[in-house]
Amino acid sequence: MPDLESDELTTEYGSYRIASLDGVADDRLPYAIRILLENVLRNQDGHRVTPDQIDALAGWGSDASFATPIELTPSRAFLHDTNGVPALVDLATMRDAMADLGGDPATIGPRIPAELVVDHSVIADFFGTADARERNVDREYERNAERYRFLKWGQNALDGFEVVPPGAGIMHQVNLERLARVVIADGGWAYPDVCLGTDSHTTMINGLGVLGWGVGGIDAEAVMLGETFGMLVPRVVGFRLTGALPAGTTATDLVLTVTQLLRAHGVVGSFVEFFGEGVAQLTLADRATIANMSPESGATCIYFPIDDETIRYLRFTGRSPERVALVEAYAKRQGLWHRPDRVADYTEIVELDLSSVTASLAGPRRPQDRVPLTVARDAHRQTLPDLLPAVPGGPVDPAQRFGVDLGGDRTRVDLGHGAVAIAAITSCTNTSNPAVMIAAGLFARNAVAAGLRTKPWVKTTLSPGSLVVTEYLQKAGLSDALDALGFTTAGYGCMTCIGASGPLIPAVQDAVREQGIAVAAVLSGNRNFDGRINPDVRMNYLASPPLVIAYALAGTMDIDLVNDPLGVDAAGRPLRLGDLWPAEADVATLIEQTLSPAMFTEAYRDVFAGDERWRALQAPDAAVFDWEDDSTYLRRPPFFDGMAAEATATPDLVGARVLALLGDSITTDHISPAGAIPAASVAGRYLAERGVAAASLNTYASRRGNHEVMMRGCFANVRLRNRLVPGVEGGYTRCFVDGGRQQTIFDAARAYRAAEVPLVVIGGKEYGTGSSRDWAAKAPALLGVRVVLAESFERIHRSNLIGMGVLPLQFLPGDSAESLGLTGEETIDVLGIDAPPPAPDAAGHTVPARVTVRADEKTFEVNVRLDTPRERELYRHGGVMKYVLRHQLGRDPGTARR
To answer: For 458-491, what is each residue's pLDDT tens digit?
Structure first.
């Protein structure tokens, strides 16, 4: 800790030093800004963290404050395996580079606690049987043992790096139920838990009063290595809640409403803070559900301040009395305790009467596209024509039916477009919430008692976010009913929500591919982007766990779920959704009767130990990792090849060509898919050439430690539409050093690289929305992309691009590729890259730097999205990894440690 004046905080368990906010922060500041202010106040050093930053936060609310960059010092880094493995690969590579440059490789390691939860690798290959989970875990270890041994090497070699092995649950639910401190006690100090994670849904922990959000894996590596996190002082949108949720609605319906409302309002890059009397109406689990989906609204984070419900939850989940007492005392002393009558001077205020929330879905492509359940069938019919596959001699008839022989003891069925092929109760968003899980179990019990069953073409899975869920469902007597409907536990991990849904039922998959049936997935997740859930599924809907079961019973999206019967009872009477829906009182009673603190204490007793499979893995403990030449999972990436010991000037870009010309809402799933690797893909063929069987190709997510796979998977999403090849879906472009011939994006990039031609990607609005996926920046950089020019960027992806030395440029307001007449066939020059940023204007506001783009005969200016001095410094170094390595070496005068 820096030497600063401090106050003392005393609880019945001890005393702590605190960086007091008394006299520094007045009552008008939002709670989240008070946490940022405490952070810079406690870590001020006059070099990286300066008095100007304290002044900007203390005087928060002016345009000048929002233009001020600050340097945040996180208390811990939080990772999952698919981002954690490449982060660890980078650290291992940095150790190699450090040794090559004459430094000590052991200096490369975490300077703050870094926790990784293995939850992204298990795939729902098996489902609907009592042994599905065990078989999926066996397959998981067969596929990923090499990666897991590498993680164990990291745990052995890097002090402060802890791994929660497979099978404990989903990272954000584990964080909520076990890992989060809320208030840190370290070295005699007490201070807020500021958690930055490699997954965008790290924001879930804000429901507990922790301030956290997702950053790119590249940024996470930097903060692990002791670097501060640079950001502009954020705007804070206040979200006032009034009223109470009506009967028949769930936290899922509420979060879909909030997501739609905030996305329409416009909160990209802002914090959102909930306040008002209605906050007390929400359980901690409800708050976590809302906070989890803040990335879907575009917000950096959604924050719920600490109150009595926070303290109740901490006790309920088995946190120690010392921790609980510290959190309450600290929050009250520092002005972080929620007062319902307090209204901060928010940038803007959004309001929602909870009583206005109705049962809803979101889809078929984006989580903000909420559809009230009452009009879901009509909305499905309206959007279906745009989602049908292109076929010779089209158009396709939306009402067409297809006969499918399911084989075995199943039957021949008649399927139409919109048939539900996947129904998954999945994702920490909802499985962390006992109310919706108990409701799903009661709904299933009512359906089974009435003789209803899910349709045989629906793949049904349950993937809880923690072991606690299984225990309370069993104790409540609901597991048998879920099992009877096929919702047996398939594994403890993200699974369907991140695209690890496994294949469809074979006959359905064959029919989809051969006959062109447009099928749907319904999941209780947080993401439903094109091509994410399953490459054979064209429409994806988010829904509450009970509604997931209801659609599995219906087997189609082409149903009025409110009024149409789901089946008939033994007497032939029609059974509708309302007949099966559980009463709120029954849900509340079961929660009270079944859940207890002992469940959480027992589930997390040995959270870092793992099962016998994990303990049996042998891992080296050398300081430098020994790379295997024939590995298809772990390859030493070329990020430091040819790196100079000092940074040099950044030259203009001359003679570049456009690799892809893209539209709006290009997600990180479009740029770097996470799902299964198709055998016919460029990456699939690369692995097959190295002896990998088709059944063992695994997912892109699992192979993020191999840059050769990830480069070949870049822009390989099956739903990508590159305007250079109109009418074509997938990872294709035209290569202008090869006569403009259509080919895969990877092959074109390789040809451009051989010809020493730099590349540009052009996009529309919200470029890079979605997961905080580092390979969505790493892979384009390795392909030779030097610049991304878009109408707007999602926050994390823009940061990741800078972290890889890729320059983000933004069209001026009103400009776009279309308005400027860009076709993608132009030769592109970007001039003035190394010019110094302009001075502030007369009012002291930061003026964005601009560069000139010359596209053949067209010349126009664009804004440079290097928003802070730190971002400009990172770009000058060629990215954050080179910056940190030079920093560690002490070779660059601009990177002296504080």
So the answer is: 999 999 999 999 999 999 999 999 999 999 999 9
pLDDT of 890 above 90: no
Buried-state track 333-344, b at ≥16 Cβ within 10 A, e below 16:
bbbbbbeeeeeb
Query: What is the 3-state composition of the chain as percent helix, strand, coil, each rounded to the nearest 5?
Result: 35, 20, 45
Q: Report the b/e string of 645-682 with b at 16+ CB within 10 A.
A: eebeebeebeebbbbbbbbebbbbbbbbbbbbbbeebb
Q: How many helices (H) and strands (E) does the chain have?
A: 31, 34
State the number of CA atoms in the 13 A half-sphere of 488 facing the CB. Answer: 17
Class of domain 76-356: alpha beta
* Residue 168, token pair as written in the block: 């404990």
**75-105 burial: b if 16+ Cβ within 10 Å, else e:** bbbbbbbbbbbbbbbbbbbbbbbbeebebeb
Asked whether the predicted pLDDT for residue 770 surpasses 90, the reply is: no
What does pTM read for this prediction? 0.86
- Tell me the chain's radius of gyration from C-alpha atoms: 26
The pLDDT of residue 897 is 28
CB 291 within 8 A of CB 203: yes
The string of pLDDT tens digits covering residues 490-530 is 999 999 998 899 999 999 999 999 999 999 999 999 999 88
- Which pLDDT value is given to residue 787? 98
- What's the chain's average pLDDT? 93
Q: What is the pLDDT of residue 842?
A: 65
| Tokens 């791994």 -> residue | 163
pLDDT of amino acid 785: 98
Place of tokens 């702590």: 16
Single-letter code of the amino acid located at 101: L
DSSP string, 548-606: HHHHHHH-BSSS-TTTS-SEE-TTS-EE-HHHHPPPHHHHHHHHHHH--HHHHHHHTTT
Question: Which residues lie closer than 8 Å to 583 by C-beta, 6 or more apart?
Answer: none
CA-to-CA distance for 493 and 652, rounded, in angstroms?
Answer: 45
- Between CA 741 and CA 869 the distance in angstroms is 42
Please say whether the structural domain 360-603 has been given the CATH code 1.10.1740.10: no
Which single residue is written with the structure tokens 């294949």? 503
Q: What is the DSSP letter of 263?
A: H
How long, in residues, is the chain? 898
List CB contacts of 478: < 8 A, sequence separation 6 or more: 438, 441, 442, 444, 445, 590
CA-wise closest residue to 465 among 419, 434, 500, 510: 434
Q: Are 76-356 and 653-670+756-892 the same fold in CATH?
A: no
For residue 569, count CB atoms less than 10 angstroms from its CB and return exposed for 0-12, middle for 13-18, buried for 19 or more.
middle
Locate 389 and state its tokens.
Answer: 């596959």
The answer to whether 577 and 550 have CB atoms below 8 angstroms apart is yes
The total of other beta-carbon atoms located within 10 Å of residue 622's CB is 10
Backbone angles phi, psi at 64, to 5 degrees: -65, -35
pLDDT in tens, 96-114: 988 888 888 988 999 999 9
pLDDT tens for each residue of 122-179: 999 999 999 999 999 999 999 999 999 999 999 999 999 999 999 999 999 999 999 9
Where in the chain are the domains?
A: 7-72, 76-356, 360-603, 653-670+756-892, 674-712
Above 70 in pLDDT, residue 894? no
Q: What is the pLDDT of residues 272-294, one digit of tens each?
A: 999 999 999 999 999 999 999 99
Superfamily per CATH, domain 653-670+756-892: Aconitase, domain 4 (3.20.19.10)
Contact between 305 and 336 (Cβ < 8 Å): yes
Give which of 513, 516, 495 is closest to 505, Cα–Cα. Answer: 513
Q: Is 806 helix (H, G, I), strand (E, B) or coil?
A: coil
Which parts of 26-170 fold into alpha helices (H)?
31-43, 51-58, 63-66, 81-100, 132-157
